[in-house]
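step 3/5: co-fold with nicotinamide-adenine-dinucleotide
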Amino acid sequence: MSRLLVTGGAGFIGSNFVHYWLDQYPDDLVVVVDALTYAGNLENLAQVQSNPNYRFEHCDINETEKMQTLLRDEAIDVIVNFAAESHVDRSIEGPDAFITANILGTHSLLKAARQVWLIEGANPDNHRFHHVSTDEVYGSLESEEPAFSEQTAYAPNSPYSASKAASDFLVRAYHHTYGMDVTTSNCSNNYGPYHFPEKLIPLVITNILHGKALPIYGDGKNIRDWLYVEDHARGIDLTIKKGRAGETYNIGGWNEWTNIDIVKLVCQLMDKRFASDELLSKRFPECPAAAGLQSETLIEFVRDRAGHDFRYAIDASYSNRELGYEPKVTFEEGIEKTLDWYLSNESWWRAVMDGSYQAWIETNYKAA
Ligand code: NAD
Ligand code: DAU
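step 4/5: write C-alpha cells
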C-alpha cells in the first residue's frame, strides 16, 4: 500500500490522476495539496470527496514547513508533483508566477522531502519523488526532424518551458547529490475532461458552443502531439512503479496534428452532433450548427504567439521498452469522449468561464 502526496491535484491532469489512482489502487492514501490558483478547481475532485482514502490540503508547495508536516503526519512515501503554472501564453504575459511556482515551488518540495525522508530518516530507502514535466523543455522541432527522445538536449524557449526545465534539473540534482529516489516524466499535450478552457481544445469546444471566434495563432501549421489524459496518468503510474531512480521517461501519443486540422476536426464533430441531436440547438442557440451553418466559419487567424514553438513530438519508445507504456485511447475515441464530457458538464465550464467558481474560492478559501 502506498501513501501519495499529489501536488496540483485540483488541476486538469492532477485531478484526472487522482481519479485514476483511487480507481486502480483503492487501498492507497491520496493527499492532494493545491494552492487553488485560477486553474485549481475543487469541483474536479468532487467525485472522490467522500472517499476515506482521500484528503485535501489547501496550501502552496512553497510552504516548506507545511509540506514537511504533511510528509511526517501522513507518512507519505510517494510524491507526485503536478503543481505548476502551466499556460504558455500567461508565461509570456507574466513570467514571475512561473518562476515562483515551478522553480521555487519544486525546490521547496524537494527540500521538504529531503528533510523528512533523508535527514530525519523517516524513509531513506523506500520513497519516490516523481516530477511531472513536459516535452516543451526540448524546444522546437522542424517538420522532418526525429521526435524528442530522452537524449535530446534541453532547449526551452518560453518562460514556462524554461521554468519547467529548471525544475527538472533540480530534481535530477537532488538524486545525484543527496541520493533522493526521483523519476521525471516528460509528456506531450494532454486533452480530456477538466481541461481548463484557456487551452486550445477546450477553448475551441466552448467557443463553438457560444458562437465565438476560434482564434488560430499564426498560420495554424504548428504541430502538437496529443495524448488522452488518462493515458498520461497510466504512464506516470508505470514510471512510479517500474521506473529506475534518477531516470527520465518520455510519455506521448504518437499522434501529431497541426492546430488548424485539429480545430477543423472538432468543428466537424460538433456539427455532426448538432445534426443528430435537436436538443443541442435548443441548449446552444448561438452555435453556428444550430442555424445549419458550419462551425468552421468561426475560425479566425490571429497574431502569432511570441516565440511560438513550431513542432513538438515525443518518441516514447524507451518508456515502451522499459515500462511497457503505450497509449491505449485512440484519438478518435478520446476526442469523442472529450466532447461528451464538455456537453455533459456545462455547469463546470460555465462556472469556470463566468468567474463564479473563482468568486466562490475567494470567499471560501482565500478570505482569511
Ligand atoms: P493546471 O494549470 O490545470 O493545474 C495546475 C494545478 O497546480 C492547479 O490546480 C493549481 O492550483 C496548482 N498550483 C499551481 N501553483 C501551485 C503551488 N505553488 N502550490 C500548489 N499548487 C499549485 O495544469 P495541468 O495542465 O494539469 O498540468 C499539470 C502538470 O503537468 C504541470 O506541471 C505541467 O507542466 C505538466 N504538463 C502538462 C501538460 C498539458 O498538456 N497540460 C503536458 C505535459 C506536462
Ligand atoms: O506540450 C506540452 C504542453 O502542452 C504543456 O507543457 C503545457 O502545460 C500545455 O499548456 C500545452 O502547451 P501548448 O502551448 O502546446 O498548449 P495550448 O493549448 O496553449 O496551445 C496548443 C497549440 O495551439 C499551440 O501551438 C498554440 C495554439 N493555440 C492555442 C490557443 C490557446 C492557438 O492557435 N489558439 C489559441 O487560442
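step 5/5: annotate
The chain is about 45% helix and 15% strand.
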